[in-house]
Amino acid sequence: MVRAKQTAVIRLGDYIDRIRAAVEPSAHTLSSLSEMHVGLSIFDFEDGMRWGGGASYEVMDPITHTWSPMAPGYFPGNMDLYWSGRPGWIDPE
Q1: How far apart are CA 82 and CA 76, in angstroms?
Q2: Range 26-42 average pLDDT
Q3: Does pTM top 0.85 for this prediction?
Q4: Considering the domain boundaries, does residue 7 fall inside one?
Q5: 89 in a domain, yes or no?
Q6: Which residue spans within the chain are E strands per DSSP?
Q7: Domain count for the chain
């Protein structure tokens, strides 16, 4: 688990087959590339929330089993609004 202000190390070698499958249909071979940019698009968190880029946080709806977006502007790191018991905390119930 990576905590706030820590660095997540991702070994690209662990995903080489998926990277090759994404690159080679574009008429390039992986070995012919000298530079590649990797974009991270979705992160799943231990508490069941996921981040989908930008300001898009979502949680799984237990009834419909689909992802539901959090309120616009929601950021889980905002301790005053989203941490239980803090001043200004918005009780979801």
Answers
A1: 6
A2: 80
A3: no
A4: no
A5: no
A6: 43-44, 49-51, 57-60, 67-69
A7: 1
The b-or-e profile of 55-92 (16+ CB within 10 A means b, else e) is eebbeeeeeeeeeeebeeebeeeeeebbeeeeeeeeee
Q: 19: burial class by Cβ within 10 Å (0-12, 13-18, 19+)? A: middle
43 is in which domain, residue-wise?
A: 12-82
Is 57 within 8 Å of 74 (Cβ atoms)?
Answer: yes
CA atoms of 1 and 26, how far apart (whole Å): 35
Note the pLDDT of residue 51.
Answer: 84
On whether residue 46 sits in a domain, the answer given is: yes
CB contact at 8 A, 89 and 78: no
Q: Kindly report, residue by residue over 47-73, the tens digit of the pLDDT.
A: 788 887 766 788 888 889 888 888 777
Q: Does 91 fall in a domain?
A: no
